[in-house]
Amino acid sequence: MNVLEVNDVHKQYANHKAVNGVSFSVPSGCIFGLLGPNGAGKTSLIRIITGITKADSGEVILDGGRLDARHPSRIGYMPEERGLYKKMKVGEHIMYLARLKGMSKQEAANAISHWFNKFDIHSWKNKKVEELSKGMQQKVQFISTVIHNPKLLILDEPFSGLDPINANLMKDEVYELKSKGTSIILSTHRMEQVEEICDHMVLINQGKNVLGGSVKEVKERFKEHLFKIKYKGNLPSPRPSFITVHEQTPEEIIIKVEDDSDANKYLQNLLQSGLFIQSFEEILPSVNEIFIQVVGKEKTMA
Amino acid sequence: MDKLWLIIKREYLSRVVKKSFILTTILTPLGIIIFMLVAGIIMNYDGAEERNIAVIDPSGILGTDSLLLKNEKGLQFQKVQGNVDSYKNSEDFDAILELPSINDYLETQYEAKYYSSEGVMGSGVIERLQTSISDNLYYHKAQKFGFNRDSLDGLDTDVELVREKKNEDDEDFSTADSLIATGIGGAMGFIMYIAVFLYGMMVLKSVTEEKTNRIVEIMVSTVKPFYLMMGKIIGVGLVGLTQVAIWAILLPVALIVSTLFFGMDPQEMQEAQNQMAGMEVDAKEMENKMKTAISEIKDQNWLLIIPLFIFYFLAGYVMYSSLFAAIGSAMGDDVSENQSLTLPISLPVIIALYIMFAVIQNPNSSLATWSSIIPFFSPIVMPARLAFGPPWWEIILSVVVLILTVIFFVWLAGRIYRVGILMYGKKVTFKELGKWLFYKE
C-alpha cells in the first residue's frame, strides 16, 4: 500500500520546466528520501504534493484519493526556509497552526501538552517565539508540523542548522513517528543521512526522476562487484583468472569479479592456502557515489 | 470559512492586545489635547516680564476707553504728562510711547515713537500696537471731521448672503450649511486619507514580514493564499474600525475632561483671542452664530452620512489595502525597490486628498462629480461631499462603481499575492506583476 503516488507530474513556470514528468510512489510507513541537486525541481514537486501549487498535468494520489481540500489535515510540511510569527507566544502559535489544520481546540490542547511533556518544554508555553534560541525555534517548528498527527510528513532539509544533539533528537522523533505508521518524505542533500535513515529513495534531476527504489536495491544495482579482503601473510600466486585486482596493499586486497560467486571461490582458495583472513566484505557504492555518478553523467550528456 | 475566521481572529487579536496599539489608541486623543493646551499656553505667552510703558499723548489721540491702555498682556500702559526726556531716566517706566500731534489730518502716514533700551520687540506686539494706534487715530480723525463715534460704527455694515430657493422643489440649503458642510466634509475626507494610508501600510508591512520571515510557506500549505490575504485585510480593517471607534468616543470625552480640569472655558479662550486681535466682538452676534452652527450640524442628514461614511471607509480601505497586499507580496529586502513599488499606489491617495480640498471649496463642480465616481478617488472625495447633499444618482453611481472596483481589485490582488509570496530573489517590476496575473495555480 502506498501512501503517496506521483504519476507523470509536469509543471511549467514562465520559461522553465520545473517538473518534467516525475513519477514515484512512497510506500506506507517508510522513510523516503527525495534527492536531487540544487534546482532539480524538488521544491516545486513538494509544493505540488502539499497543494501549494497545482500540477499542469499528471496526478498526485494521497492515501488512495486525489488531492483535495481535506489533504492539509493529512500532511505535515516543514519547509527548508522556515519561520514563525516572532511576536506570538509559543503555545498560541502551535495552537493556531493546529487549528488551521482542522483540529478542535480541545484536541489541539491535548496534543500540545503531550509534545510539551515529551520535550520537557512547558516553561516555553508563554514565551514569545523571538525569545527562543534558533534550536528551540526548530523544536517548536517540528512540533507544529506533526501536531495534527499527519499521515504523511514532508521534511525539507530538517537537520540543517541543528547541533548534533538536537539533530539526533530529531532523528529519534522521525524514527518514532515511522514506528507509529507515519510515512516520511525527507528531502535532503546530505547523502549520508539518506543512507542512514531512509528505506526508499528517488533521485530527481532536471525535473525528472532518474533513479528510484529501496535504498538497498539501488545500491545493489550500482555495485561494481568489488570485495575487500583483509589478511595477514603472503597471497598465494598465481592469482586465478576469474578475478582482477582493483587495489592492493600488504594487508588488504580489493578484487573485482564478474560473478559474485567467484568471490566466494577465491576466498576458498585463500583459506585453503592457509592465509589468515581478518575480514571479507562486499563493497557497495555509497548513495553519495551513486548520486555523483548519475547526476554527473546527466550533466555531461546535457 | 473556519480557517478564514481563525486567520481574521489572529490578525485582529495579535494587533489589538499589543502594548503599542493600546498606547497609541489611548494616547493619541490625550496627545491631541495636550498639544492643544500647550499650543494655547504658548500662544498666550507674551514675554516673561511685565513692562511699564509711559504714554505721551498731548493731543488725546487715545480715547479714554481705548483698549490699548487696558489690555496689552505684559505691557502696562499709563498716560503721563510732560515730554519724553523727563521720563527717560525714570525708574517707574521701562519704555515710553510717544504719539505726536497731527498737523495734516488728510495725511495717511503717521509715525509714533517707542523709546526702549531693548533693540528687539516681538513682531506680534508691534503689529498689535500699530493696529491699536491706527484704530484710535481713525476715531480721532473722524471726530475732527465732525463724525461722532456712534454714527461711524453705523457705517460698518456686516453683510450676509442668504440663499433662497429658486423653485419650490429646490433643495434646502443655506449658506451657513455650506460652511458647516465644508468643515464636516474636510474632516471626513482627511480621516479617510489617514485611514487608507495607516491601515493599508499596516497590511503591506505584515505581508512583507510574513514573506521575509518565511512563515508564509507553512501557511499556504495549510490555507489558500487568498484566504490568508483576505484574513489579513479583514483583520487589520477591524483593527482600524476599533481604533477609529475608540477615538470617536475618547476624543470628545478627553476634551470635556480637560476643559473641566484645566478650567479652559472655550468661551474664555475665544474672548482672549479676540482681545489679542484687538477687536471688539459683539457677544450676542457670536452666540447667535454658534447657535445656528450647532443647529446646522444637528440638521445634517446623519442617518445617511454615517452609513455612507462607513461604507466608503471600508470600501476604500479594502481596495487600497488589497493593492498594498499585492505589492507587499512582491517585495523583497531591497528598500529602494520597495519604494518604487509603493509609489504608484500611494500617488492616487495623495492626489485624492488634493482633489478633496478643491472639492469642498466647490462641491458642485464637474471635478467633484467625476472624482467622486472614479473609484481611486471616490473613497476620499465622496465622504467630503456628503455634507453638501450631492444628487442621489451620483451617490448611487459612485457606490456601484466602487463596489465593482473593489471586487475586481481584490481578485487582481489575490492573483498577484499567491505568486508573489513564494517568489524570492527576483527583481520585481510592474510588467512582472502583470505576468503573475496569468500564472496558472
Characterization of this structure:
The complex is a heterodimer of chains A (302) and B (441). Chain A has nine helices and 14 strands. Chain A is an alpha/beta fold and 302 residues long. Chain A has two domains: 2-220, 3-Layer(aba) Sandwich (Rossmann fold), CATH 3.40.50.300; 224-283. A six-stranded mixed beta sheet of chain A has the order 6-7-8-3-9-10, with helices on both faces. In chain A, helix 2 crosses helix 3 (105-119) and helix 2 packs parallel to helix 4 (134-146). The radius of gyration of chain A is 24 Å and the shape is elongated. The model of chain A has no long low-confidence stretch (mean pLDDT 87). Chain B is mainly alpha-helical and 441 residues long. Chain B has two domains: 51-149, D-Maltodextrin-Binding Protein, domain 2 (3-Layer(aba) Sandwich); 173-259 and 287-436, no CATH class. Helix content of chain B is 67%, strand content 5%. Chain B has a four-stranded mixed beta sheet. In chain B, helix 3 links the parallel strand 1 (51-56) and strand 2. The radius of gyration of chain B is 31 Å and the shape is elongated. The model of chain B is unreliable at 276-280 (pLDDT under 50).
The helix tally of chain A amounts to 9
Ends distance of chain B: 20 Å
Main structural class of chain B: mainly alpha
| Assembly category | heterodimer
The level of helicity of chain B is 55-70%
Range of strand content of chain B? under 5%
**Percentage beta strand of chain A:** 25-35%
Strand order of the largest sheet of chain B: 2-1-3-4
Assign the CATH topology of the largest domain in chain A. Rossmann fold
**Mean pLDDT over the full residue set of chain A:** 87
- List SSEs of chain B in N-to-C order: HHEHEHEEHHHHHHHHHHHHH
Helical coverage of chain A, percent range: 25-40%
In the sheet with the most strands of chain A, the strands line up as 6-7-8-3-9-10
Largest interface: A-B, 28 and 22 residues
Alpha-carbon Rg of chain B, integer: 31 Å
User: Biggest β-sheet of chain A: count, sense, barrel?
Assistant: 6 strands, mixed
How many structural domains are formed by the residues of chain A?
2
**Major pleated sheet of chain B:** 4 strands, mixed
Distance between the termini of chain A: 36 Å
| Total number of domains of chain B | 2
- Total strand segments of chain B: 4
